[in-house]
Every structure is written in C-alpha cells, then in structure tokens.
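In this section we walk through a basic example: taking a raw amino acid sequence and producing a predicted 3D structure, encoded as discrete structure tokens. The instruction is simple. Fold the sequence below.
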Amino acid sequence: MKITILGCYAATPRSFTNPTSQVLEMKNHLFLIDCGEGTQVQLRRNRIKISKIRHIFISHLHGDHFYGLVGLISTFRLLNREQELHVYGPKGIKEIISLQLKLANSWTNYPLIFHELQSKEQELLYEDDKLSVKTIPLKHRVYTNGFLFEEKPGERKLLVHEAQRLNIDKTLFKSLKKGKDVVSEDGELIPNSMVTSDPEPVKSYAFCSDTVYDPEIVPMIKRVTALYHESTFLEEQHELAFPTKHSTAKQAASIARDAGVQHLILGHYSTRYSDIELFRTEASEIFQNISLADDGKEFTF
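The resulting token sequence is shown next.
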C-alpha cells in the first residue's frame, strides 16, 4: 500500500505548494483521491502512470479539491484514452464537468461515468475480489465524504513440505489455501491449521479531509493501517477551526488515538504557517506515530 501526496495544503496553490490531491496504490489499483488545481502537473512530476487511474474520488465541491478534474479528464481525451473512467463525488459534479466539456466542445472519446453521492450514511462505492471502498461521512461547510479503502483477506499460506509429508494430493492445495480441511490419500482428515499459516494482515487507509473535529467517524476507521486527517490549524488558532469546519493538529491526533489507528498522516495545512513541523510537535502530545504530508512525499505500508 503506497500513498503519494501530490498536494496537501489548504485553499490556494502557491509557487511551492499545491492543494489537495493524492494517489493510493493498492492491490494493483491506482486510485486518485481529490484533484485540486495542478494535479496533472504533479502526476507527471511524480512519474505516476496516469493511464492506470480508473477511479477518482472527490471529497467535496470546494475548488481546492476538484478544480484540476476537468483538465485531467480533457488530457485523457487528448491521449486517446479508451478505458472507462469512474468519478465518485457529491451530487452536482456531473453537471459541473459536463457543462465545461459541452461549452468547450470537448466530449470525451472514452466512457466517463459519474457516481454522484448524497447519502449522509456510510455507503459502499466500489468492490472487487481484493478490496472495497466506502465513504466516511464528514462534517464540513458543504456536503463532504472521506474515503475508506480496505483490503480483503488473502488466501492462507500453504506449508508445502508439511502437506507433502502428510500425503495430501496436490489437487487439494487450492482448498487448503481457502481455509478448508481436507482428507489425505491415506484417508486421514487433516485440519487446515496443520498445513497452512495465516495470510498477510490486511491493510486499510482512511482519507479524512475536510472536516470539523468529529468523534462520530471513530467507529468507521477503527484500527486502520493509516489515517490521513486534515489539520488546517494549530491550537493557537483553534477559534478558527469550528466556524470554518476544520480541525487542529491536536484534534486530528485525538481522532487517531481514539480510533487506535497504526499511523497518522497530517495534512491540509493552512498556508499561514511557515513551518509544518509545528503540527507534528503539537499532535505528538496526544499520538506518537505521526508523519507529515508534503507535496511529493511517499508513504509505504
């Protein structure tokens, strides 16, 4: 599981920072999460193979989270894309993008499929045999969702030498990997636990930006491998957090602690701060395993 931060700063782009966008590589998928202005430049700068992006998740319709989307969609057209592109985002995103494409006479030459969201309850957005993607309803000034990416348990690991020693036919190996007991060629019932070991632990990633401090999300993100949680403000400006429906670094750390997550990634910093290390210092009073997002930074779990 690899996360590449393309942009992680709030509000407007600057000459050396970019608004929110990131790529999650998970089980042979490349998921694009949010698409702020300049995203496609950052994709190229970070050498992301954009043709592999088939699912884009937009958290909400504030510009610093989706103003790069129509440009990326148009670039796919110029590159003669053929495979489907799925866009998941709040109701209204289809109208916004379609109008831009219509007035520019630039309809895509590939299937562009919108999945518009309006539920305030958690819902399943995507699922295959290896992973699932669900919403995390957030509380912001407009309708907003975070996203929860979860691997599914893999097959059990076969202890080949032990299976051979117990005279188990090779045709039963697939059943063993699926957790089933089998009967050996000698007619003996072999418990699965004797010839297999547990699969690799599943990994999960929760993306939570933008949101006011909201303990209601804790049950949805319990024990995730990594949590990206916005930390727009430091505590000294905490009076700005609630009116703007954002969080402080301490509040993000409190969510991570209460959810028992393994790793917290802070981001969506207000550009008023010149030193993002202050966010780690503040959050570390509550939660220890912290990383700071920054443009171009990669995290592998």
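Looking at the output, two observations stand out. The two ends are 5 Å apart (CA to CA). The mean pLDDT is 96. In the next section we compare this with other chains.
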